[in-house]
Write a structure and sequence with these properties.
heterodimer; A: alpha+beta; 14 strands; B: alpha+beta; five-stranded mixed β-sheet; 19 helices; 27 strands; about 30% helix; globular
């Protein structure tokens, strides 16, 4: 395993009008960044939240990783297209700058022959943006999403970017529709013609959730809404989404062993030194459970259920998606280390008092996700708590876990 | 106990490591129906580190030589490493002969051999009454196969103890049921098998069925080594028993403002197993016919076997008929322009009303009277109940429309669910107690509530009572049927505690040398009138020395099990342009209580409301024409996250026995059914059209709002 977190590719930089985001920057850092908010009219943080509606997963997933992932429904890819992002690729021969239009169509092409995505550059700043989606549930991937950015020159639209997902291909821009909008004032009939054009020409996908024809029917109103909203916001120079920017998570330390095949690892788990043999592919979850730390639960193996959440140097991670070597020399905290039945942490007491467990399988993960949230955000809103409950609970309907975290937050203040 | 959960101390099936454990992997059928012509495991067995590979010829009675659904078990490999087991099992050479597969209800119904059970009851003359009705509501409702997706996929660990007795640690709910099936399949006396069931993840979703324990046990018996078989989340999704797909056809007649006839036809797909079909059909009929007073009723149910994954007949499997009736009644109320709640209240069924014979044939206890309680529950959701939540119609402007909906549900135990519970309570020589109770419930409420109830009766702090795990060696026998565990076991615990208290008092009086009537029991001592005391510890020690340990087994069979009754209210907002449904709030009123501690019960009901929301909007697995699931990856399955859940509220109207802390049974199930109906009714009101097919996904809602041009 070659760990790219160690090459110093994380972080956001501002140069002139441009923002450059290191490829290994976690999405949660983008969400928490005032710069990412102001430089993208709020679109990039909003897309990160929509694409990964879990604080846990956002604090692990990187912008580069998500961009090369080739997910046809990615709202993040849609946003990067709408923002004219440029992908900066280091290459053994010569570095490349690949525009989103080219890179996102097939990331493998630009990375072939030893390329590494170094950063994503967002040039300029649009005046307005919008992101609209149709989904079965807010947390589910969209059947269809539309991202729009607008840039004005006086009263006229100087530039419009219009991106649609839910296609048989990766998210795509509709350049003809954009051209119809540019150099107009965005009159209603112009918007309707552009929406008609994009809606009728988009190669929508058939899948168990909707047919291509059903997606086409949903797309027209969605396109119109996104266009109207982006236009209105652009006129008022108003950014999307909550302006409440939160302090960033604890810094993610560089990889202690950038190159690893197998060997003995040493880490501190709940204050105890654990030494274990590991291979490159051994997960932190397997290492911890192998060491008898059973409060870390093995659930879905995809990071989604959150039952395996631990804090790695204070940062929440799904241990099923974290290689054990990442924890070399570091500190891991699990529910057992947070507190015990005799000396519980206030959050654990709050969970017990609220009656927040039914079967209890998810509880250790929820408690740790909540701990990470309260460390970063001592006074969370209910929405922030819901977003930060690291994973799924199949028994409680979340009402009591949410109440427990809010009560613990009040108690700590 | 909850602190144990929050501090990572609570153990589930997988939370155990035994040295020398073999890891198992399964080979599954790619075909919906097929015969194994040839299975050659020689290459797989030759792999270093592979200890056993079993194909149908090696495991008669456990691995079937015929695959009954896509994902059925065909071979198992046991190896030192999980990876290696997976590699080995993939190397088994299989030659399959495809057989004709029955993949939907229409095909199954044409084939009498697919019928697992039928139930037909009728009273009055339905056809004649429908012919005379001024208005007939008609519709066919359909619910998809719904995997339950517990967070811990099914898992078993098996080993031989020092007496070479088989020990099975399982994630399936009922240890006694697992033991019975294993004894049968492995041809072992039940006494040679010990089944231990620690906490069960997602028990409320239904984990009563045994999925993998037999294979794991077989490997242990063959190799003498511990074995562990853990399904992946994907295997769990596509092969573990889910809720059955079902279709319900309703005709509901209204004449002169009254419900006059109900004709209900149910087809339910139990997949490859078809177990429990007869009882399931009776549930389905009872819960749909028992709500309203309708003079002419007919219920025809058929449970079918298909080449789809097995469905569980046990937990919330009977949602379809109740939903269909609740939706049709809403429409009937609208047809006479009456408020949906007033219309319901006017028709609630009382004892002596017509329809009783049909209900009795479906297992309804005689004299069951829920009308007044349900009317009370409905009142809490209406203006005269002090909650201004009128069912309101949509606002006219913009693409969003709102609508409110109501649904009621009742769950009444049939004869099979009226079994009692059992509790075993023992006083030790230090004055503490051990307690084992069954049927073993799986929610948070159980053990804590049992210990607290016993402690209150015995007059000791709850921590002096230690609950034993669900273990066939120590727990009192339980049949593992859908008896409402909390109620039945809770009552048994209360009786055991009262009996032990009486025996302690008698023993204490003897030690003090005073008549029993002059003693009192409190704070862990028996006290004589003179003030002299003898401690529980002394009584326990004396009893042991006398060779008469103070142990009580209580197995009360309650005269009746309280019905579980619920009314639910919901408000939904529908985007008419995109078909997106948002439920704004969900609210439930239940008859139940008093409770020692309402929080765990409240939490269980909130979970049931969320479950109904998922079922209404998102859940369900569909299959292609070959019977393969269309979604394989858990990533693509919409599962309710915290951000998806609207405000929930739950309230209880006391209904149970005021002397017991266990005054309700299976509240979650009634709440889930009522909430499902409330949501579907709210959405139907918002869009102004009836929706008949779950889930109410955007594409489907859009079709209901604006049918696609022909």
């Amino acid at each position: 395993v070659l760990d790219l977190v160690g090459l110093g590719l994380s972080g956001l930089k501002v140069e002139d009008e441009d923002v450059e985001i290191g490829a290994t920057t976690p999405l949660q850092d983008v969400v928490d960044s005032p710069v990412a908010h102001s430089a993208t009219a709020g679109l990039l943080p909003a897309a990160c939240r929509a694409a990964l509606p879990s604080r846990l997963l956002r604090s692990m997933a990187t912008i580069g990783g998500e961009a090369v992932h080739d997910d046809p429904d990615s709202e993040l890819a849609a946003a990067l297209l709408a923002l004219n992002a440029v992908f900066m690729v280091s290459h053994p021969q010569e570095p490349r700058e690949s525009p989103a239009l080219r890179f996102l169509r097939r990331p493998a092409t630009d990375l072939a022959g030893g390329g590494i995505l170094r950063s994503v550059l967002i040039p300029g700043t649009p005046h307005g943006a919008a992101l609209e989606r149709v989904a079965v549930l807010p947390s589910a991937p969209p059947l269809l999403a539309v991202a729009v950015t607008t840039t004005f020159s006086g009263d006229k639209l100087a530039r419009v970017r219009l991106v649609v997902t839910g296609l048989a291909t990766p998210p795509a821009r509709f350049i003809e529709a954009e051209a119809q909008l540019e150099r107009t004032a965005g009159e209603e009939d112009v918007l309707e013609r552009a929406a008609d054009l994009a809606s009728s020409h988009a190669p929508f996908r058939d899948d168990p959730w909707a047919t291509a024809e059903q997606r086409r029917r949903m797309s027209r109103p969605l396109l119109l809404r996104a266009l109207r909203t982006a236009l209105e916001r652009g006129r008022r120079r108003e950014a999307m989404g909550p302006a409440r920017v939160r302090p960033p998570l604890p810094h993610r330390a560089p990889a202690p062993m950038p190159y690893f095949t197998s060997g003995r690892l040493e880490l501190t788990v709940n204050g105890r030194v654990v030494r274990a043999e590991a291979e490159a592919r051994t997960t932190l979850l397997d290492l911890l459970r192998g060491a008898g730390v059973f409060g870390v639960k093995a659930g879905c193996a995809t990071g989604r259920c959150g039952a395996c959440t631990v804090l790695l140097d204070g940062r929440p991670v799904a241990s099923c998606l974290t290689l054990a070597v990442r924890a070399q020399g570091r500190t891991v905290l699990t529910a057992e280390g947070l507190g015990t039945v005799e000396r519980p942490h206030p959050l654990q007491t709050a969970f017990a008092e609220a009656g927040a467990s039914q079967c209890g399988f998810c509880t250790p993960g929820l408690v740790l996700g909540a701990r990470a949230l309260l460390d970063a955000v001592p006074d969370p809103t209910e929405d922030e708590v819901r977003d930060a409950l690291a994973g799924l609970c199949r028994c409680t309907g979340y009402a009591k876990p949410v109440a427990a975290v809010l009560a613990a937050a009040r108690g700590e203040r | 106990l909850s602190l144990r959960r929050a501090t990572g101390q609570a153990a589930f099936a997988g939370d155990l490591a035994l040295p020398g454990t073999l890891h198992l992997a399964l080979r599954r059928s790619p075909l919906a129906h097929a015969r194994v012509v040839r299975a050659d495991a020689s290459a797989a067995r030759a792999l270093p580190g592979v200890v056993a590979v079993l194909v149908p010829a090696d495991a008669a009675g456990i691995l079937s030589p015929a695959a009954r659904f896509v994902g059925d078990r065909l071979a198992v490999a046991a190896a030192e490493e999980p990876e290696l087991a997976r590699r080995a099992v993939d190397m088994v050479e299989l030659e399959l002969e495809a057989l004709p597969a029955v993949l939907d209800l229409d095909a199954a119904q044409l084939d009498e051999s697919s019928v697992a059970a039928r139930a037909t009851v009728a009273e009055g003359d339905v056809d004649e009454a429908l012919g005379r009705a001024q208005h007939v509501v008609e519709g066919e409702w359909s619910l998809p196969f719904t995997p339950s997706v517990p967070l811990e996929p099914s898992l078993a660990v098996t080993w031989l103890d020092e007496n070479r007795r088989l020990v099975v640690r399982t994630s399936a709910e009922s240890p006694f049921r697992v033991r019975g099936i294993l004894a049968d399949r492995l041809s072992l006396p039940a006494a040679r098998i010990r089944v231990v069931r620690p906490l069960v993840a997602g028990g409320s979703l239904g984990r009563t069925d045994m999925v993998i324990e037999d294979l794991c046990a077989l490997v242990t018996l063959r190799t003498g080594r511990p074995a562990r078989l853990a399904l992946s989340a994907e295997e769990e999704l596509s092969t573990a028993p889910g809720r059955p797909a079902q279709q319900v056809r309703v005709r509901l007649g209204v004449a002169e403002g009254r419900l006059v006839a109900l004709d209900l036809r149910l087809r339910i797909d139990l997949g490859a197993d078809g177990e429990g079909a007869t009882e399931l059909l009776r549930w389905c009929g009872r819960h749909a016919l028992g709500l309203y007073r309708i003079p002419h009723v007919r219920f025809e149910g058929v449970a079918l076997r298909t080449n789809r994954p097995p469905a569980s007949a046990r937990r919330v499997a009977d949602a379809g008929t109740a939903l269909a009736v609740e939706c049709a009644v809403d429409e009937a109320a609208a047809s006479v322009e009456e408020d949906a709640m007033a219309f319901r209240r006017r028709h609630l069924r009382a004892p002596g009303d017509p329809g009783g014979e049909a209900l009795a044939a479906l297992g309804e206890p005689a004299g069951q009277d829920d009308a007044r309680a349900i009317a009370e529950l409905l009142r809490t959701g209406s203006p005269d109940g002090g909650r201004p939540r009128r069912l309101r119609l949509a606002s006219p402007s913009g693409p969003q429309r709102q609508g409110s909906g109501v649904g009621i549900a009742r769950r009444v135990e049939g004869p099979e669910g009226r079994a009692g519970g059992a509790a075993l309570l023992r006083l030790l020589d230090d004055g503490s107690f051990t307690l084992a109770a069954g049927p073993s419930a799986v929610g948070a409420a159980d053990e804590l509530a049992y210990a607290e109830a016993a402690a209150a009766i015995l007059g000791v702090p709850p921590h002096r009572i230690v609950c034993a795990a669900a273990d066939t060696d120590s727990a009192p026998y339980e049949p593992g049927d859908p008896a409402p565990a909390y109620f039945a076991a809770g009552r048994a615990v209360e009786q055991a505690a009262r009996d032990v208290r009486e025996r302690i008092r008698e023993a204490g009086a003897a030690l003090l040398g005073v008549p029993v009537a002059e003693t009192t029991v409190q704070d862990g001592v028996v006290r004589a009138g003179s003030g002299r005391v003898v401690r529980f510890a002394e009584i326990g020690a004396a009893a042991l020395q006398a060779g008469q340990p103070l142990t009580v087994t209580a197995t009360p069979v309650p005269a009746s099990t309280p019905p579980s009754l619920a009314a639910a209210f919901a408000e939904a907002e529908v985007d008419l342009e995109t078909g997106v449904v948002r439920v704004m709030w969900l609210d439930a009123a239940l008859a139940g209580g008093p409770f020692a501690d309402a929080r765990p019960i409240e939490g269980q009901v909130e979970g049931a409301l969320a479950d109904a929301l998922e079922q209404a909007l998102a859940a369900g697995l569909s299959f292609d024409s070959e019977g393969r699931p269309l979604v394989h990856s858990l990533r693509r399955v919409p599962l309710l996250a915290a951000i998806d859940v609207p405000p929930l509220s739950v309230r209880f109207l006391p209904a149970g026995d005021p002397l017991s802390r266990f005054g309700a049974a299976a509240l979650g199930e009634a709440a889930a059914r009522a909430a499902l109906a409330a949501i579907v009714n709210a959405v139907s009101r918002a869009v102004g059209a009836r929706l008949h097919e779950l889930p109410l996904a955007p594409a489907r809602v859009l079709e209901a709002v604006r049918p696609a041009p022909a």
